[in-house]
Structures are given as structure tokens and as C-alpha cells.
Amino acid sequence: MLSVNIICIGKIKEKYWTDAIAEYSKRLRAFCKFSIIELDEEKTYQNPNPSQIESILNAEGKRILSALTKGSFVVPMCIEGKSLSSEELAAKLGDIPLCGKSSVDFIIGGSWGLSPEVKARSDLKLSMSKMTFPHQMARVVLCEQIYRAFEINSNGKYHK
What is the pLDDT of residue 159? Predict the structure, then answer.
């Protein structure tokens, strides 16, 4: 069974987001070993300069890289990544075990994004959209799309 992890910076506090994530997490257990790994975000300065932003990205990047599953297929979520349809994401998730990988790690960075080192470690840079979403919403949307992908691959009724 494929292990699917979402590694993300920060915690979600609002109940409506945590409820949505809990629902998709429950549904995903039928298809994979699913987990969300929340890492601490760096303190952000008010109006940070480029050097401070780089420092934040580097610190968060080190935490992300240390949380990756050894030998996993790594998918950082970034705006410059590739946009896939739900069907294309389903096909990609279906192909991962065929490539000899037993786990996939999706990464959602902090408010300043992801460090170059995290992006360099990627097997597939993925973009949800050219639009910007709050990180909490991005996490819910990613959970939903992963669930949809498994439903597509199992010919379930969820995807229409």
C-alpha cells in the first residue's frame, strides 16, 4: 500500500479546515497510508528584508528535508510547478509504485514559499494554480485532489 504524506509548514487552527482535512484523511485510509506532518514555521519579521526571507526559507527547508521519507517520490507544491488535471494526477500517483517507490511526500511551504534546496530535491514540482491560496485552503484542496485521484484509479463514483 502506498504511503502518502503531506509535509507542511505551520499548523491549522480553524475548525472548519481541520474538519475538512479529517474527513479526507478518513476517506484516504481505504486507499493508502496517509499522514500529515506539520513542521514549525519560522518567526517572520514585520516587513522582512531579502536576507531575513532567505534565512526563513533555509531554516524551514532544513526541517522539510529532514522530514522526507527516505526514497520517497517528492512533490513540492509551488507556483512555478506543472499544472495537472485530476486525471493526470491520478495517473502519476498510479505510476509511482511502478517506479519502485512506496511513498510520496507532498510539500506545502510556509508563507514565503520553499527553499531552492527543497525544490531541487523534487521529482515533480506541482502547481495547483497560478492563483495564490491560503496555506490552509491549499492543504484541504490537496487532500481532496489526492482522494479524487485514488477514486479515479479505482473507478469510484466520486469523480464525475
Answer: 61
Q: In the predicted model, what is the mean pLDDT of residues 98-123?
A: 95
Question: Is residue 4 within 8 Å of residue 28, measured between CB atoms?
Answer: yes
CA distance 154 to 31: 9
Q: Is the pLDDT of residue 131 over 90?
A: no
User: What's the rounded Cα separation, in Å, for the pair 103 and 129?
Assistant: 24
Q: Which residues neighbour 53 within 8 Å (Cβ) at sequence distance 6 or greater?
A: 112
DSSP-assigned states of every residue in 108-122? E-BTTB--HHHHHT-
Q: Which residues pair with 83 in a beta bridge?
A: 127
Q: pLDDT tens for residues 39-58?
A: 999 988 888 999 999 999 99
d(CA 69, CA 138): 21
Reference 71, options 95, 94, 92, 96; nearest CA is: 96
Q: Between the CA of residue 98 and those of 54, 74, 128, 146, what are the distances in Å? A: 37, 15, 24, 18
